[in-house]
């Protein structure tokens, strides 16, 4: 379990630093663009995000799982996966171009979307190399590259502000980042893990596609928490989408936590469960569920109490109407944080059930968005996202508890909720004080309350110490 902590710590340090920098730059960019242009920029991001779910069709998860189980086959999987990915990337780039061509978009938005489609193709070609690195559980490599990606992203955003550029300039960011990633990841994989030789094995490809069916369905259905960003501008216009795009950045920033934990736990579970070591799996599941609950509770309470001040502070008074959506989206991503350990386990071991639950969730999400957004606007989109994450949490946890391994669950909430309420009372009583002072004080009060409640255990200190001691080597 120690190398999981090492992987998570590496990615967290990288993601926290890059997320803070990107978030601060992004808030300045949104203020520079204004609500309407921010809504147009949000549409670019929505297209890229939604199509990114389709362009891989779940193959990355499958390859990570298979290579984790048998690393000697890494070269074979890489070669065939890259070929599949090139075809998929090119096909979905053309599909996106066709949708844009016949869509009713302003010329500037249309041209920017064409550039975004090229970035989609390039980003898809990075996935095979990242899958191999992930399967070998060397996530510190991905952490370092992610940080450089963030610097490229932030640098181009700053350039756009200083040079007074529009969204067409910003549309080039994904392409520039992906070109860098392809060069770096391909070199690292070839030097450290397996040689890359482009090839097609028809029999193997056929088997790969059969294995991939449940992963493909799961990946397609996973757009449930992003589909509203694509629907909203068409039903309510660019200004409301600008509000939603601004506060959705809180989701994107906080979502790095479940992404990091899932990336670390998924190959571990894929390796351990087939060996029958369920005692170790249960231990890891309990440990990281406890951590995730402890993180999610104060984020949710703090966002509820400080939503308006956070919105105005980061995005300006023009975006004040977005404050209710900010809290709801933070609450939704907090639920995602809570269930991410069971998410990693169910996807690696019960992919078909995960696809069924997520498919139902997608239908629920699309139906309610189409029904309610025209009347109630962007805030109801955030409400639907919150309920969607609750469906995922309940469904995934039930399957893991009944079909894979049972573990104590609800008791993980008792001490964090008590500590969170203490923190909330302090923040409410001092709500007129400086925002940053309140956030810092809230964090101190919460941690002190957890310590007083004896939430922290001896093994937590040992795990933290091992995670940050990079001189110590682990067998993986």
UniProtKB/TrEMBL annotation:
It comes from Candidatus Doudnabacteria bacterium RIFCSPHIGHO2_01_FULL_45_18. Pfam families: Polysacc_synt (PF01943). It is a multi-pass membrane protein. The chain crosses the membrane at residues 7-26, 38-57, 78-105, 111-133, 145-162, 168-188, 208-227, 247-270, 291-312, 324-346, 353-372, 378-400, 412-430, 436-456. It is found in: Cell membrane. Its main location: membrane. Keywords: Cell membrane, Membrane, Transmembrane, Transmembrane helix. It comes from the Bacteria. This is Uncharacterized protein. GO terms for cellular component: plasma membrane. The keyword Membrane applies.
